[in-house]
Amino acid sequence: MTAMILKELDITNFRSIRGHIHAPLDAKVVLIHGENGAGKTSLLSAIELALTGSVQSLYRADAGYAKQLLHRSAGEGSVLLKTSGAVGQQSFETRLDGQGATAAGRLEQRLATFFSERAYLPQSLLGQLLQIYQESGSGSDSPLAQFVGNLLGLDRLDALEAGLKPLVDVRNVRKVVDGWSSAETEKTRLERLLESQRKTRAAVAESLTADFEALKIIAEHFAPELAVSEDSLDALTASLQDEADAAALEKRYDQVREFGAIRREIAQAQESIEGANALPDADASAAAYQLWESSDGARVSALRARIEQLLPKVSLPSDLEHFPEEAIAQLRAAAKELSDRAAQARADSARRVAAESERDAVLTQRNTIDAEVSSISSDSSSLASALAELTSFVENEICPVCDRDFREVTEGSLSEHVHAKVRRLSGAAERLLTLGRSRSDLQLSVERLEREIEALTSRILDSKFLADLDRRAADLDRAAVELEGLAEAFRQGGRLRSEDVAARRARIELQTRTAALLGARETLGGFARTVGASEPSEGETFEAAVERIEIFLMAESKRLGDRVTKRREGLEYVTTIRAGLARLTETDAGINKDLTAWQRADSSLTRAQELRDEGIAIRNAVDRVRSTIIRREFNDRLNFLWGDLFVRLAPVEPFVPAFRIPPAQTQRLQPKLITEHRYGGDAGGTPGAMLSAGNLNTAALTLFIALHLAVPVKLPLLILDDPVQSMDDVHIAHFAALLRTLSKEHGRQILIAVHDRQLFEYLRLELSPAFTEDSLLTLELSRSRRRDTLCSHNRYAFREETALVSAA
């Protein structure tokens, strides 16, 4: 048993619990009271969520319940449960959000399962418990099968029987026995693999023969003295790897590329000479540009320098022809920007003066309202209400407050005087409310105007700086106008300078290409000598010489390329032959290995069949032993405990619920719920047919407690959510005695929630501490005015009764 007890619980925004509550739980008995909807079930569900990470009763109702755990009015929540015991202090926390719950710690699976099934009885499960066990399936994971395993300790027999069951059918053996199906498959696979490997070996040998024949043909060109065989492959490889042909081929490729460059050089020189008659007149272009320079050059240069000084951060075109268009656009844009900035500064200054005037006027109105408000009493409304109530007590001229005769003071009736006073005070109160609203509006206007004045003040420019902006804008406008007047001169100068530069460049290129054409013939002759071809003769044209040398280079490149290709093919055949020989060796080794494996698989299957026969015999023996133990322990132990608890709570009920195990084998456990008469006789029907609603509820409750007591205790906890539904006073009294026995003699920590106030007070008295180490805690859940959940607690310790001792 794990000596763990609950210590305290903190809940924030969980299900119906709104806000945060703290609930101490460190007592032998914890009684929880609250009206329906106050949060009792939510508090107990929070304990289950913290310990197990889930709420089983909610999961049965809705698999997606986790999204509904957070209170609808909150964005996040949490559940923190602290425990104490032999293992020390432990904390189990679960955080909640709109997507679900995240557990920071929980019990191990074995303890969590025990808590959900044997320690905590939710209110929703009480009426379903008998039906769950009555309709429980016969599988090993059903609630009844799990209980039988815990009760009788038959885990080893169950595991042995479950493990040996598939041996009956060889198809099941293939599914569950490791190696059986794989051994059969492996044997079949090896048979097919051996057949495939033998075919592969034949194909590899045939391919090797063809490769050797092709290699012999290539070896005749490079190593005719070598006999091609497996032993001569290394020597043949060394002969084929000679790099002389590859180096010669690479050199020829370089010569071809060099020859292409010479051809392009000759073609360009010839084109330049042919186009010499189309060159522009350089002298005429220079004279036209000098004439423009003398007439407009100085003005254009001066204006350009001034514009670049006005626009120091702008990159302007260096070409005179495109300069005017770009410079005018930049000048206009800069002038507009400066003008807009100056205009905005003047508008801000004017607006600040107007805003200050508006603020002064609003302040005057606010002060006037303040003066009027101070003259009106703030208690006018209250006094008017009091006098209005007082009029109902005025029956004559005697004042009901001071008992004085009003006729002694003035003429007229007391009732009319009071009514007139009420009307005046009511008008003053209404006027005070109107003035208050007007003053609030004026105060907002004052604050808005002051913010506007502060912003305008920060943007106002200095007068000197404003004048400088105007002056710079005027300079930019004047420069733009002047540039528009000289735009045509700029374009003409740029055009004439471009023509002069182009004419000079064309003359220099013509001179250079003429000299290049003369040197090209010498270059072609030297290249022909280098490659081994004849030089161009005196009467031979460039075209004829170039074509002759090109044919010579292509023929040499082809010859060397063929030799390099044959060497590469020979090396590829050598590589293929080596791989084929290795594959042949590998295939022979694989055939030998797979043949050994086939023999081993065949022997394993023979031995496995013998073990299967032995397992079937063991399974039959286990089934006989297990059936005997289950009938004896299930019928005697559980039924006795359940019946004893039921009789304690319902002493006058003649029919006692029980389980009946069929007399056949218990390999698939299918119990039946019956009722037995207390004084003997034939069994009755199911509890639902024989018991009243109250006793049916008692049968479910005692079944849960019997299941809790019948198995080894892993957690000393018993949590019951409103279990006394439909019980009369007799049942409740016996139930209280049962709880007292479980707490004080069996060492269980009991948490029980009830909604009936009288029952709560009764249980508080019955379960009060009876010795020094005993303790009782009561928790009462309620709602605040804001509908937040409140949890108040009282702790009761053992106190020795001295009054009776003194009396004795």
Please give a structural write-up.
This protein is α/β, with parallel strands linked by helices and 808 residues long. Among the domains are: 4-127 and 715-807, 3-Layer(aba) Sandwich (Rossmann fold), CATH 3.40.50.300; 311-485. Helix content is 64%, strand content 11%. It has 23 helices and 13 strands. It has helices spanning 40-52, 56-61, 109-119, 123-126, 129-134, 143-152, 155-164, 170-176, 180-222, 233-240, 244-274, 282-310, 323-375, 380-390, 414-459, 463-485, 487-531, 542-649, 687-690, 693-710, 729-744, 757-766, 802-807, and strands spanning 4-14, 17-24, 29-34, 77-85, 90-97, 100-103, 120-121, 655-660, 672-677, 717-721, 749-754, 775-783, 789-797. The strands form three sheets. It has a six-stranded mixed beta sheet with strand order 7-10-11-3-12-13, with helices on both faces. Strands 2-1-4-5-6 form a five-stranded antiparallel beta sheet, with helices on one face. β5 and β6 form a beta hairpin. The model has no long low-confidence stretch (mean pLDDT 76).
Main traits of this protein?
Rossmann fold; 11% strand; flat; 5-stranded antiparallel β-sheet; alpha/beta; single chain; 23 helices; 808 residues; 6-stranded mixed β-sheet
